[in-house]
Amino acid sequence: MKGLLIKDWKLLRNQGGYFSTVFLIVILIMSIGSVSTTGFMISYMTFLFSVFVLSTLSYDSHDNGMAFLMSLPVERKTYVKEKYLFAIFLSSGSWIISILLRMMFFIFQPSGENVMEFIYTSPIFLMMALIFLAYSLPIHLKYGSEKGHFITFGILGAAGLGIFSFIRFIGSTELIKLFYDIKNWPSGSLMTFLAVFCIIFGIISYGISLKIMEKKEF
To answer: Which region, left, alpha or beta, applies to residue 110 given φ > 0 means left and ψ of -120 to 50 means alpha?
Structure first.
């Protein structure tokens, strides 16, 4: 597994110019933006770096790379485990860096924002990124990166359209009330719910990915 982690890390380093540019843009926006803007940039930076995990699947499959990779002493279970670990490391690392940047601007650019409240609620960004990856990884493993992108966002779009249509045409006041109740949950309750959901969903996603890799032919 160590070799696979090093491989993906080197792939990330090869994209250093692109990520460095994004990093500088994030710093610039944080330095001149409002509190709400910097909060958005933290979520943006966390998602941007975490989604790179999906790109490594594309690099692995390029020019029959997976067939060669599976000919090495690498088990399919190890490959799946490495992708999920790399997703956690990369998402957590980018999230921590963005939080540290935000804390620096708290010091040098006071905004009146409650620092403790910000620290307390910021893990929501990380958990949302991990939930998205847990949802996306099995799809990309099953259909490949090109089809996987269309299917991933197609399902999300169809789900969003379905919920909107259900609320719009059926007029379910109970469902609308449920959305508002969740939105108004205390930060601690919302984070606890997301953390539990993230863990359970991640375990289910990992199990599905294992089955996909076991049946996949290269």
So the answer is: beta
Query: For 35-88, how does the pLDDT look when each residue is reduced to its tens digit (9 = 90+)?
Result: 556 667 777 888 888 888 888 888 877 777 777 777 778 788 888 999 999 999
Position 97 scores a pLDDT of: 84
Q: In angstroms, rounded to a whole number, what is the distance separating the alpha carbons of residues 66 and 50?
A: 21
Q: What is the DSSP string of 135-191?
A: HHHHHHHHHHHHHHHHHHHHHHHHHHHHHHHIIIII--HHHHHHHHHHHTS-HHHHH
Per residue in 121-175, pLDDT (tens digit) is 678 888 888 999 999 999 988 888 778 878 888 887 887 777 677 666 665 565 5
* CA dihedral for 59, 64, 68, 74, sign (positive or negative): positive
Cβ-Cβ contacts under 8 Å for 73 (sequence gap 6 or more): none
Neighbours of 21 (CB within 10 A): 10
**Which own/partner contact pairs does 181-189 have at CB distance under 8 Å and 24+ positions apart?**
187/117, 187/120, 187/121, 187/124, 188/120
- From residue 215, alpha-carbon distances to 135, 141, 209, 212 in Å are 19, 11, 10, 5
d(CA 103, CA 119): 9
Handedness of CA 180, 181, 182, 187 (dihedral sign): positive
Amino acid in the structure at residue 209: S
Give dist(CA 62, CA 207) in Å, integer. 25
